[in-house]
Amino acid sequence: MKAKSAAAPYAVWMTIFIVVPMVLVVIFAFTDKSGSFTLKNIAEVGQYSNVFLRSIWLGAVATAISLLLGYPLAQIISHISPRRQSVMIMLVMLPMWMNFLLRTYAWMTLLEDNGIINNLLASFGLGRLHLINTQGAVVLGMVYNYIPYMILPIYSVLTKIDSSVVEAAQDLGANRVQVFSKVIFPMSMPGVISGITMVFVPAVSTFIISKMLGGGANLMIGDLIDMQFLGSAYNPNLGSAISLVLMVLILICMGIMHQFDDGENSGGGIMV
Amino acid sequence: MENTPIISLENIAVSFDGEVVLKDFNLSIRNGEFVTLLGASGCGKTTTLRIIGGFVKQDTGDVFFNGKKINDLPPHKREVNTIFQKYALFPHLNVYDNVAFGMRVHGKSESQIKTTVNEMLSMVNLNGFAHRNVNLLSGGQQQRVAIARALANEPKVLLLDEPLGALDLKLRKDMQVELKKIQQQTGITFVFVTHDQEEALSMSDTVVVMDKGEIQQIGTPQDIYNEPRNAFVADFIGESNILDGVMHEDYLVEFARHPFKCVDKGFQANEPVDVVIRPEDIDVVEPDTSHLSGTVTSVNFKGVHYEIIVDVNGFKWMIQSTDYQEVGNRIGLSLQPDDIHIMHKSEYSGMFGDYSTFSDEMDEDSQNGGKEAEIYE
After folding, report:
1. Are residues B322 and B206 in the same domain?
2. Mutate to test the interface with A, among B87, B98, B105 (most CBs of A within 10 A)
3. Strand-by-strand arrangement of the B19-29 sheet
4. What is the pTM assigned to this prediction?
């Protein structure tokens, strides 16, 4: 009874700020400007399928790169002395203390055609590169901003793996590669799943990064939604429909991800 | 008899952070033997096991396996398997896959794996458990999975690191019998680490008593019990009355102010010695018919026998007898020559063997393996 009443404020909070907005999004998605039911908005989303594909593709690439870079780092950190571990974790999180916009602006000045990198290249007599307003720049921005969310959950799962389990695998004849592929990696799956979730979801729906580093040519779903609510193409109904479709697509992607987890998620993973 | 030992450790020394764990350690283990490393925690027994397993690298000295030096061989290439203290089962695999792990790593065929896994599971009485989640098994069942997993690899030597420590008394006794049976069936060399002297005596072919990183005595359980080499061994294995004595000549020793005939020889004339008398060897007689007599100061009922503490001229003896004695009674103690065991003096002389400070609490502690608390704290 006590636990129930203690949970009440949270339940109220969640109802007001999560459930109600979700319901509103659904209502907006299925109504027109006059408020009557329509499927037109959902049907219109179809014409933006290339934007959806690009967003999911760029998000997936950024997630894959974050995993490939973040996992080894998480593993290295989990093996050093506890004091150095906390320093390293602080360094991983340090960029997050700075404003997200500022960080992305910084990348703009680095990547611009007359930016720091190109000026540096030119001063060495090397040719200038077109860096900004490319898909590569968007992926770079995503990886840079979201990689801590990959490293942290993987790190926290890795530190919980009992060293005697690793020894048992070695004892039974597993070499380093086998210890990793048969014991450490499968046991770290909950962390990997939450890392992927926490990078992929914001990466797919970002709009700042694509706007600032991708230019007009690399429009993403986030930009599209942004335009429907705050931009020139003001149409909250269509914006809601796009959001709804995006939500469903992400849920499907996560559902597929969780298939790999075998349902043996022993805590530590974040459910979507 | 002159076979090369399956494992031999020569002049091994290890220290961690400047603290000596093993010093000049020599041990050879014959093929098919059940060897127990016995000692209180911190005596270096687990380190010895980990050196054999390849998890700890000795500072100096050599490890031989079947006559071949394996100092630099990593654990996964050694033909030994370990049963870890906390089992270390793979939590992401079920019972079957845990047992199959070693064979899969070695690239055995799935049909062969299936046969062996089923064979192993029935050996440890876990038929029908193949697809259970290991995290939901009881301690005893997890223990059996760990045994099956190690044996499925067909090791030449099985290393067991206090495998029964976490089990309750009844289960521990059952597993002792079962492990001994498995060892005899498979003929695999077992190196067993424990701090429980009873476990060591009842299971082993050879017991290695260790303290402070050194071997105190190696021998059969009977040797260790009947012929302890020093006061540490005498005290650690069972109960002992340990007295100061002087060896006058062969077969004649003086202690408790009286000369006694004994069966030991080879000491120097008038050499100071430690005399060990096991409590169960002492016969209670009328006080005036014996050289030793004293007052009963306490009596404890232990089920099979009474534990009687007798004050003889200030030294408190322990006697185990099936006959009850009244506290305050004067009784005589009678000893036969073969009840008396003589040991050279050692660094442990005078530390053990007088029951003046004896209490029930300490007795219980030592039953529960809290012996280290008694010695080190």
Report:
1. no
2. B105
3. B19-29, B7-16, B60-65, B68-69
4. 0.80
